[in-house]
């Protein structure tokens, strides 16, 4: 193995790039779809679900900011759990992160494909999804600067389109749609549960911390900035959506924002919002492949995954084998995956590794933290509460999540036993 293949990844991303990576992961297809689901659950009070989910997310985001300021390394939550809890906990945390985001990436690719095929019904959706995975794999292969530039363009474009939805839709709001307004009921809580997962990408930039300039300052800033920006966008979108059309109609649509803006009578507005959905899914997929390849790289560096996956390309300075494996797997899943279990696996895994991140933040010494220990306590408690809540929302999420966790644990234990046998011979 050459020296170039074993050196670390160099910092090339600024604060704007870092923030855009997390914004790209948060504001994705979810806002174009989940808005309808939440409106059906919380009704006119869906904006309260958005705010409640943001507050819950904030505690975990602060924990990530504290952790990244101390450990600005590739791998994020895997590194935190590995160093502050135990190697085994670190492994299963990273394993669940990879499992969650690889399946989610395939789902996002299929979402992109369905939007595109709806506009141009020529190629089967699964093949479109597989091809877009390969395109973004190539981008990630040739360097993070290329990926970051494309992601910056996509993020700015989708924010402009959502800004258009808010501004244009606001001029057509029917105030009568806001009555009667119920401030708090069980629907608001269910809505917050689903929106929490739409916010789930706020810590994506922490996975590529080694590649961010002045990571100890810029990564925590990017995490908190991305969450704040996304919350503002989500709240305004929710207000305009329910002001344009009834929550029942929003809930019954697979493209609620396009349906809402259609009430203005502008076909061009519908086309623009639909284009926004395409851009949003593309941006999420790009950051997903980027994030999973870096998590794989970080785990391979610690010999928790095959060490070949930690090799760095001598020219492009990317973990090229990790990128290729992750991209190929996402493309393959996009061809054959059954999406019925994708969201449930991602849901369980997200809460699992975010809860462990908060526990790791609690273990930080007092002199290394910028906030009270109460912050990670509340963060862990809220994640665990939502994990229990998930049991009532979907038993399947627990079954598939526990199976995925069990497979990872068996792999780690088997690898550990094999390594010990090699050492004794």
Layout: helices, strands, pairs:
Blueprint: H1 3-6, H2 15-26, H3 29-42, H4 46-70, H5 77-84, H6 87-119, H7 125-141, H8 144-170, H9 186-198, H10 215-244, H11 247-251, H12 256-262, H13 267-301, H14 320-336, H15 342-362, H16 374-393, H17 395-424
Structural account:
- The chain is an all-alpha fold.
- The protein has a single domain, classed as Up-down Bundle (Amino acid/polyamine transporter I).
- Helix 2 packs across helix 8, helix 3 crosses helix 4 and helix 6 crosses helix 7.
- The chain is globular and about 75 Å long.
- The two termini are 25 Å apart.
- The relative contact order is 0.20.
- The N terminus is likely disordered.
Task: Report a brief summary of the structure.
The protein is mainly alpha-helical and 425 residues long.
């Amino acid at each position: 193995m050459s020296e170039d293949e074993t050196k670390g990844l160099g910092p090339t991303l600024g604060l704007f790039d870092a923030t855009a990576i997390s914004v790209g992961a948060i504001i994705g297809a979810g806002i174009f779809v989940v808005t309808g689901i939440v409106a059906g659950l919380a009704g006119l009070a869906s904006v309260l679900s958005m705010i409640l989910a943001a507050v819950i997310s904030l505690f975990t985001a602060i924990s990530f900011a504290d952790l990244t300021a101390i450990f600005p390394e590739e791998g994020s939550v895997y590194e935190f759990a590995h160093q502050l809890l135990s190697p085994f906990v670190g492994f299963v945390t990273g394993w669940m992160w990879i499992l969650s985001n690889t399946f989610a990436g395939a789902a996002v690719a299929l979402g992109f494909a369905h939007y595109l095929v709806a506009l141009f019904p020529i190629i089967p959706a699964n093949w479109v999804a597989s091809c877009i995975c390969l395109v973004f794999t190539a981008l990630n292969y040739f360097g993070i600067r290329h990926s970051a530039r494309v992601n910056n363009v996509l993020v700015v474009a989708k924010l402009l389109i959502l800004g258009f939805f808010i501004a244009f839709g606001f001029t057509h709001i029917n105030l009568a749609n806001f009555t009667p307004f119920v401030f708090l009921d069980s629907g608001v809580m269910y809505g917050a549960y689903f929106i929490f997962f739409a916010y789930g990408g706020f810590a994506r930039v922490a996975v590529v911390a080694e590649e961010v300039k002045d990571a100890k300052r810029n990564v925590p800033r990017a995490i908190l900035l991305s969450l704040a920006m996304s919350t503002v966008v989500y709240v305004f979108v929710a207000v305009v959506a329910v002001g344009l059309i009834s929550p029942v109609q929003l809930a019954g649509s697979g493209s609620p924002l396009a349906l809402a803006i259609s009430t203005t009578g502008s076909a061009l507005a519908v086309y623009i919002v639909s284009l926004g959905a395409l851009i949003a899914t593309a941006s999420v997929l790009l950051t997903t492949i980027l994030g999973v390849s870096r998590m794989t790289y970080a785990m391979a560096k610690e010999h928790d995954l095959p060490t070949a996956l930690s090799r760095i390309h001598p020219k492009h300075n990317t973990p090229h084998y990790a990128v290729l494996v992750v991209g190929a797997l996402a493309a393959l899943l996009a061809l054959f995956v059954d999406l019925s279990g994708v969201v449930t696996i991602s849901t369980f895994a997200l809460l699992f590794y975010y809860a462990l991140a908060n526990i790791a933040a609690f273990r930080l010494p007092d002199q290394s933290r910028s906030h009270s220990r109460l912050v990670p306590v509340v963060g862990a408690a809220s994640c665990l509460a939502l994990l229990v809540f998930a049991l009532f929302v979907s038993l399947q999420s627990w079954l598939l999540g526990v199976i995925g966790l069990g497979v990872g644990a068996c792999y780690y234990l088997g690898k550990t036993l094999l390594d010990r046998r090699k050492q004794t011979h």
